C-alpha cells in the first residue's frame, strides 16, 4: 500500500476580502493575520466537501495548515468524510522576509478550543517554515523538503492510506505542486501554452502517481519506488467547478503580493475600478484570468457502443486527454481507448443537474449551500468512435 | 490501471525535461456522476430560459424524482404551462409529453470549454470554429467537469389534445379547483346538488355560467387523460396484400374475396318493434342472385361458395330446429371444416342477435323472440371471467384448459362438445355459458328445477329472479375458483348455503346478525371471499375478441391466409410460463406437421415449477 493520490485544496474566501471594512473580524486565535473565513468562504468549504463525497476516490486522511482559515475549510470535509484533521506546519502560509510581523501559527491546544474533537494531536510537523520569512526560493525549498518527510511519515504510520487531502494556502499550494512535478522553481509554466497551477479560493488540485512507478513483485505484492524517484501527474488543476460562484481570487507568484493579503486585495480592487472605467458592468468577482472575461460552454462526449443491453461506462480511476478540438475530427483518449470525434449540434437541449446526486450520500438534514442547484446547458456534443491502432 | 506510457499514448509523448514530466493535459475522470434531461426544446443560455424549461417539466423536485427512479410514471413536459392573472392555468388539460429514463445509458463525459467572451457569438454559435479561432492565442481551456450517466429523454409523441375553453363545466372546474379561489369554490360546491334527480340529463342545466353558448347536443363529456395508447410512432409494417397478385403481363388480380355480410342486430332489449323474422333483404337478394347464376355474387367460381353455403344452411336448419339459440363457438365444432367460410353468411340468413340483455351475443333463430316464452330461459347466457392476476400465475395457468383451436371439431358429431359444459368436474373451454350447459352440475339443476320464473321478462335477469341467478352464479364462481386452484373437493356446507340463500346480497343477512350494526365495508369483503378469483357478468377477454370478430361486417373466404398474417402480431407467449399445449401451438404456427408429431409423441415435458415443488 502506498500513497497514490494527493488532493491539494486552498482555503475558502477570507473575511478580509470582503469589500466593506466593518465586516472584518479580528483573528480568533489572536495571531496576526490569522483571519477566519467570510460566510461565503464557509459556503465554499461546504461545496468542496460535497464535491469530495460525490467522487469515487475520496481522501482517507486530511492534513491542514494550522491557520484558522484552513482548518475552517477542512471542517465540513472532515465532517462529511468522517475523518479527523491532522495539522502540519509544513503547509503554512508564505510570508516574505520584509513583512512587518512574521506570524507564528497557534498551537494545537489553542486551536483545539475552536475545533474541539476534530483535530488530531499526534502528527509531527514535517518542516517548520522560517520565522524570519521566506523568499520564493525559500518556500520552494521548504516544499521540496516537505514531501519526502511527509510521505515517509504517512506511509509508515498509515500504510493503508492511498489518498490524502492537503488544505493549504495559494503560494504553498503552487510550491507543493511545482516540487511534486519536479520543476525548478515556482514561476515556471506547466506547458508551452503558459498554463500555471490555478489557485482560486477553495480550488482543488489532484496529483496522481504515474502508473509506471507501481509494479508487482513475484508474490503479487505491490512494489513501489522510493518517494524521490516517483513521478506524479497533475490531473486536476485548480478545479472550482463545484463552487457556485466559480473561481475567485486566483493568485500566482507573478502577482507580487502575498496571496490574499490586504495589499493583494487593494491592488485587485484598484484594477477592477480601472476596468469598470472602461466597461460599465464590472462584475463584482474578479475575472478568471487577469486578462479577460471568459464565457463557458458545455459539450458532451458521447461514446455509442451500439449495444442496447450494455452501457458504456467511463472508469473512475482513469484520465482523459484531448487533441485537435478545433478540427473536424478531434482525438479523445479516455482510459486506454482512443476515439475519433465528430462534432454534433443537437436538435434540442440537454440540461444536466450538477448537484443532483450529491445529496444522497450526505447526512440527513444536511441542507446547506451545496444544494443550490446548478444546471449545465448542453447543445453541442462530440460523438466518439473508437479507432483501432494501426 | 494499465500503464499508459508504454503504448505510445499521448502521455508518453509529453515533454520530458530532465527528470521532470509534464502531465498538465491529462484530466482525471474521477468526477461526479450526474443526471440530465434531454429536452426537445431550444433552451437559451439565459437563466430565465433554463428556469422555464425546468418549470415546464414540473420543477426540480419532479425531475429529481424521475431521475432517481422514485417516480416510475416519467417526466411530464407541458409545452403550455402559462397561467392567467388569477393564477389559473390557461390550458389546464394539456396532455403532456412523457419523458422516461434511458435504460443502459452510455456514460458521457461533460467537457467545460472556456473561451474569451463573445467568441461564440462572433462565430454564429459554431463552437468548433470558435475554438479554432481562439486556439492561436491559447486562450481556450477545456476541462472535463462531470460524467453524465442517467438521462430522461422525450421519445414519445404528443397526445391528441382537446380545448375546453368554451365548455362551461370545465371553466367552473378551472376557476375553482385549479385557481383555488375561495369565492368561486364556494359557489361551485353550493351548486352541486346533494341528490341529483336527473343524472340522465345534459349537465348544462346545472352549470352556473350560462353566458357561454354551448350546443345542446354537446354533453360536456370530460376528456380522458390519454387518448393515444401507442406512445411511440406506430410501426405500420406495410406489406403486400397477400391476396393481390400481379401476373407477368402486368395484369393484377385479387385472389381472395370479401363478401359483405348483413347480420341483423337488435340493439335495445326493451324494444317494442319486435324482432327480425326475415333475413336482411340485401342478403336475400344476393343469395337469390347466386342461386340464379350458380355463383354467389362477389365470389370466384372456383371457391364454390354457394355450394358450401347451401350445405351449411342445411346443417344450420337442423340445428336451429333442435335448439333455437346458439353460441357460434358451439356451431363451429359441428359444421365441417370446409364449410366454415360460409358459416357467417349462413347465420345471417337464419338468425339475428341481441347486443344486450340475457341473450346477448348468441344467435337466435329468425322469428323466435326469447322474451315471449319461459322456454327460452335455459338459453340465457352467463359470463364468467378468471381474474387476470390469477391467469399470470403459472401454477394456476397449468390448471386451465386451453381453448379449442379455431377449426376444432366437436367430439360428439352434430352436438355441442361436452367440453363446453359445466359439470363441476372440469373447467369448461369457454366461460360464456348458456344455462342449460350448467345442468350437469346437480346443485344448479336442483335450483333450476325449483325456480319460479318471472311473469315478465327482465332486461337484466331474463326469466329468472335475481335470487335464483345469484345462487347459480355463486355456485359456478365457487366451484370454478376451486378448480382453477386445482381443488376438486368442494365444501358441501358452502354449496348448501348458496342453495338456501334468501337474500341476493349477504350483507342483507349480516345486517340482521350484527345486531343492527351495519358495516358498509363488509359487503365488499364478502364478495371477495366467495369470488374465489372468478368474476361474474364480465366477458372473458377471449370471448370479447371473438364477439368483435363476429360483429365485423365482412366475411373472408380465406381465413387461413389471414391468420398467418396475424402470426407476426406480438402475443403474450412466455416460454417460462407456457404450458405444453401453448408450446405446441407456437410451433404449429410455423410448422404444423412437427407440432402434430410432437404432440402425439412427446409426453415428457416437465415445467420448471413442477420440478421445484
Features:
heterodimer; A: about 400 residues; alpha/beta; Rossmann fold; Immunoglobulin-like; 3 domains; seven-stranded mixed sheet; five-stranded mixed sheet; 14 strands; about 25% helix; globular; B: about 625 residues; alpha+beta; Phosphorylase Kinase, domain 1; four-stranded mixed sheet; 23 helices; about 35% helix; extended; disordered N terminus
Q: What's this entry about, in short?
A:
Chain A: One of its GO terms (molecular function) is phosphatase activity. Chain A is α/β, with parallel strands linked by helices and 390 residues long. Chain A is 23% helix and 23% strand.
How does the SSE layout of this entry go?
The complex is a heterodimer of chains A (390) and B (613).
Chain A: E1 5-10, H1 39-54, E2 61-64, H2 68-81, E3 85-87, H3 108-114, E4 119-120, H4 136-157, E5 163-168, H5 170-180, E6 204-209, E7 214-216, E8 222-224, E9 232-239, H6 262-278, E10 294-303, E11 319-323, E12 331-334, E13 337-353, H7 358-361, E14 375-386
Parallel strand pairs in A: 1-5, 2-3, 2-5, 3-4, 10-14
Antiparallel strand pairs in A: 1-6, 6-9, 7-8, 11-12, 12-13, 13-14
Helix pairs in contact in A: 1-2, 4-5
Chain B: H1 10-13, E1 16-17, E2 20-21, E3 27-28, E4 33-39, H2 47-56, H3 59-67, E5 75-77, E6 97-101, E7 108-116, H4 119-122, H5 127-134, E8 141-153, H6 168-178, H7 182-191, E9 244-246, E10 252-254, E11 258-260, E12 264-266, H8 281-293, H9 305-322, E13 325-326, H10 328-332, H11 340-350, E14 351-354, E15 363-365, E16 381-386, H12 388-391, H13 394-397, E17 432-434, H14 442-450, H15 466-484, H16 492-499, H17 506-513, H18 522-531, E18 534-536, H19 541-551, E19 554-556, H20 559-566, H21 580-590, H22 592-601, H23 608-612
Parallel strand pairs in B: 4-8, 12-14
Antiparallel strand pairs in B: 1-2, 5-6, 6-8, 7-8, 9-10, 11-19, 13-15, 14-15, 16-17, 16-18
